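Consider a typical record:
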Amino acid sequence: MKLEEVKFDCVFFRGHIPCSPNKEHGVACSNCDFYQAIETRILIIKLGAIGDVIRTTPLIESYRKTHPNCHITWLTLFPDVLPKESIEDVLKWEVTSLYKIQNRKFDIAINLDKDEEACQLLAHVDAKEKYGFIWENNHISAATEAATHKLITGFFDHISIRNTKNYLEEIFEICHLKFEGQEYQIRKNETLIEKWNSHIKSIANGKKVIGLNTGCGPRWKTRLWSKENWISLIKDLESQGYFCMILGGAAEDEVNQYYAKQTGAYYPGHFSLEEFITLTNTCDLIVTQVSLMMHIAIALQKKMVLMNNIFNAHEFELYGRGEIIQPTTGCDCYYGNTCSREVSCMKDISVSMILESVNKFS
C-alpha cells in the first residue's frame, strides 16, 4: 500500500498505530467502507477549575449538531472529568500538549479561560476562526465582540451583580452559538457505579437517598452552612423516612465524621474524584452549597437543592431539576472571602427552608 492512499483525514486515523476498522475487520484505507472524513477540527481550551470544565461540556453536544463530522481537541488541567467517548483528543496542560497544539491546524479554536497563558495560547494557535479570550497588546482581550460581556462582568463587581445571563448562555454566545438546554457531560466509571449502586441500595432499604455535601472548598468559606443546621437537617430528613448520606472530600472528613456520630447518618468516607462522582450518582437528590458538587450533580442529572449567598444566582442553570435557596436578608459580600456582618447571612437559610425544598423535589 502506498502512503498517498492513507486517509489521514479519517475520524478513525490514530496517528501511527492501527485504527479500529483495521484491528477489528482487517481492512486498509484502499478497501475500507468505514472511512469518514473529518470536516471540522475544533480546539476547546478550558483549563480549570474542575467545576468550570464540567459546566463547559454542553458545547460538545452543540458542536456535534452544527458540525456532525467534527474532531474535538480539549486542553485542560483536569482531563479525568471529560468523557472520552465524546471527545476525540483530551489533552492535559503540559509541555508536550502545548507543542502538539501549536503544530496543528484548526478550523475553530475557543478559549474560555481568562488566565494569561490560555489567552496567549489562543493568540498563537493556527485556526480559521477564534472565539473567547485572547491576548492582544500585552493584555487580555476579546477574540470577537461576543466575548466582551463576559470580560466586562469579570472586571467590575457592580456590573457583574446585575447580570441576568447564566454561565451557559454566556459561553454559548461567546462561541456564536445558542444555548438550548444542552446537558453537561462527565466521565463515569461503570464498574464503580455497579459496585456502589448495589451497596447503597442494600443499606437504604428502599428509602430515597439524599446526598448531603457539607463542604464548599477553601476559597470562599463564607458559603458554609452551620454545623448545627446540618445536624438538624439530617435528623429531620431521617425522621421523614429519607436515607441520608454525608458526602465530602478530605477537607471535610473530620467534620463529616462528627455529623455521622451526632446523627447516625451514613458516611462512606472520602475518596478519589472518580469515586466521589460515583457516590453522587447513587443519590436521588443532592443538598449542597455552591461547590464542585453542584456541577457534578447537574452533570449526573440529579435533583438538587442549592444554597447560595455570595454569587449571582442568575449564573446557575439547574435544568428544572431543583431550586436555589438564598438568605432571606440577602448577602452583603458579593464574591467575598469574609463576611461583613456580625452574624453570617447563611444563618438566614433555615433548616425548614431546605427541608421544604427537598420534599418538593424528591
